[in-house]
Amino acid sequence: MEKNRVFTYKIEESVYSVKILINKEKSTMIQVFIPHLEVVTSTSCKYEASFGFTEKEVFAAMDEFGLTEKAEVRAWYDGFTFGNTHDIYNPWSIINYLDKQRFAAYWANTSSNSLVGKLIQEGTPEIKIVMEDLLQGKSFHASIDEQIIFSQLNHNLHAIWSLLLACGYLKVETYTIDGNYGECDYTLSLTNKEVRLMFRHMIDGWLAEYTPAYNAFIKALLLDDKKAMNVYMNRTALDTFSSFDAGNRPSETAEPERFYHGFVLGLMVDLADRYRITSNRESGFGRYDVMLEPLKDGAPAFVLEFKVHDSEDEETLADTVTAALRQIEEKAYGILVFADGRMI
Predict the structure, then answer these.
(1) Does residue 161 contact residue 230 with C-beta atoms inside 8 Å?
(2) Do residues 133 and 227 both lie within one domain?
(3) Structurally, how many domains does the chain consist of?
């Protein structure tokens, strides 16, 4: 019996080798052997200047095209950091900007971003709170693994930040390694204005299906029309609970909290030019649910406390509302606003 014959061809030996096996029936099977690959992450110094355009290259190209808005270009497309090299610009965005000579979210719109949107929308309240800070230009600390795998995304709280960092939506501001345990601690923020705009559009899209009732609620809120607020809030809440569901692990107790944190992100997108909006922050003797602080003097502030009706302890919804108002007063949630001389 004729033995199988093996021919091995090494193509660029340092990368991979190809083995072709030919058996007695003259059929073939091709095997590709790839050796262990080195993973280069955002904090790796290897190839750190090879993932985009440097600021010097970008500004030189702008000079050649006669473009002068360098500070604005930096705000829109700078922010990427690799290893010890800062001010790396997105090549796709820069090329399109030079060609069209106007600012737009060129790179952020090259994919659907559906996975990222799903993870944030169905994520825990903690994830949405971090997103609130990021949208306001703040940073946050997290211990993450840059070599995250997809199977960890559903149960690892920090996995989403690893994904956003790997995809370029987050940038590393500082990076330290715990000498005792070897854990990596990162200070992260949104990469640039282009990414921030992408997230704003994404969050706005979550509530797009319910825009009439949602917009009516915001209008009623600002006009202090409590009756209309109640009507539209109920309609918006009932319609959008499913949009902020817990995914694989829905929970009746977690669902209201998931809703209002998603709701807050929507408020931030629509009212960002008029109010500073935060949720679940310490004030007085506890944590309020949502606070809207006006950016201009003379406008009222709002403290929103979300309550689930407890039929055992509260006979009517009016009792639930009374309990919420009493909690706001007893916990002195508005102390920070009153300190600035504003009204609620």
Answers:
(1) no
(2) no
(3) 4
Distance separating alpha carbons of residues 238 and 122, to the nearest angstrom: 16
**Residue 103: is its pLDDT beyond 90?**
yes
Residue 99 has what pLDDT? 95
Range of 30's domain?
1-37
Shared domain for 284 and 226, answered yes or no, is yes
User: What Cα–Cα distance (Å) separates residue 112 from each residue in 43, 80, 148?
Assistant: 26, 21, 21
**137 part of a folded domain:** yes
Mean pLDDT for 172-186 is 80
Residue 60's CB is within 10 A of a number of other CB atoms, namely 11
Taking residue 70's Cβ as centre, other Cβ atoms within 10 Å add up to 14
pLDDT at position 201 over 70:
yes
Tally of CB atoms within 10 A around 257: 19
Contact 234, 259 (CB under 8 A): no
Confidence of residue 110 (pLDDT cuts 50, 70, 90): confident
Please check whether residue 187 is in contact with residue 201, taking contact to mean a CB–CB distance below 8 angstroms: no
Given a cut of 80, whether residue 337 has pLDDT beyond it is no
Residue 295 and residue 246 share a domain: yes
Residue 1: which pLDDT band, with cuts at 50, 70 and 90? very low
pLDDT, one tens digit per residue, over 15-39 is: 455 555 555 554 555 555 556 667 7
Q: How far apart are CA 3 and CA 19, in angstroms?
A: 16
Closest by CA position to 237, among listed 178, 185, 306: 306
Helix, strand, coil shares of the chain, percent, nearest 5, are: 40, 20, 40
Eight-class DSSP state of 58: H
For 311-328, b where at least 16 C-beta lie within 10 A, e where not — what string?
eeebeeeeebbebbeeeb
Its pTM stands at 0.65
Model confidence at 294, in pLDDT bands (50, 70, 90)?
confident
Q: Check whether residue 25 and residue 54 sit in a common domain.
A: no
Three-state secondary structure readout of 243-292 = HHCCCCCCCCCCHHHHHHHHHHHHHHHHHCCCEEEEECCEECCEECCEEE
